Amino acid sequence: MTWVGTMQTLRLVSLGVGALSALTVVFLAAAGVAGVAGNSGVSRQLFGSVVGVWFAVVVAGGFVMMLDRVVTE
Q1: To 10 degrees, what angle do helices 3-38 and 41-72 make?
Q2: Are the C-beta atoms of residues 40 and 47 closer than 8 Å to each other?
Q3: Are 73 and 33 in contact (CB under 8 A)?
């Protein structure tokens, strides 16, 4: 795999990460509303795990975009 191919793959991954984080924000809002409405332990646990996953996705996406910027300059 060439360097250009690797960067194209990373760009696709970062686009996917962006789409995933947008979907996760929607899911996060829905889980938050459900948590407030139900106020059960399960929805709070779900909300906490979604926040954790979303944070990891955002950090990974930011790292890929930063790497892409550094390499393409």
Answers
A1: 160
A2: no
A3: no
**pLDDT higher than 60, residue 62:** yes
**Reported pTM:** 0.39
Q: What is the pLDDT of residues 5-45, one digit of tens each?
A: 777 777 777 777 777 777 777 777 777 666 666 666 666 67
List the alpha helices (DSSP H) in the chain.
Answer: 3-38, 41-72
Q: Residue 6, Cβ neighbours under 10 Å: how many?
A: 11
Counted residue by residue, the chain has a size of 73
What is the end-to-end Cα distance of the chain in Å, rounded? 21
